[in-house]
Amino acid sequence: MDKRIFLAVAAVLALGAAQAQNAEEAMNKAGCMACHAKEKKVIGPSFKEIAAKYKGQDATAKLMEKVRKGGSGVYGPIPMAPNPPDKINDADLKAAVELILKTS
């Protein structure tokens, strides 16, 4: 493999890892992890369950709106409180939703 291609691929992978880490930090700071986990249902659904439900769909905007407005009934009767921009900004929310949708 050409060294330049290898370095470009390595840079893209490093950027992706950094973005994932930033998204996880934002979710921790916003309190998302108090109710959600990657692999198992806590109070709310697991990220794996959310990713499976929306697999193959372009659901980022839809899920960002759900997080902003809150709601209940999709995964059971326990409501999710609204999460305004002062709790998690739009860029971090988008990164978090994209990370969740990539969970397998």
From TrEMBL:
The answer to keyword Ribosomal protein applying to this record is: no
Question: Gene3D superfamilies, per this entry?
Answer: Cytochrome c-like domain
Keyword set includes Metal-binding: yes
The residues that the entry says bind heme c are C32, H36, M80
Q: Check the UniProt entry and state the signal peptide residues, or none.
A: 1-22
Q: Which UniProt keywords apply?
A: Electron transport, Heme, Iron, Metal-binding, Signal, Transport
Ranges where the Cytochrome c domain occurs:
18-104
What are the GO MF terms of this UniProt record?
electron transfer activity; heme binding; iron ion binding
On modification after translation, the UniProt record reads: Binds 1 heme c group covalently per subunit.
Stated name of the protein: C-type cytochrome
Q: Specify the species.
A: Ramlibacter cellulosilyticus
Please spell out the taxonomic lineage of the organism that makes this protein. Bacteria, Pseudomonadati, Pseudomonadota, Betaproteobacteria, Burkholderiales
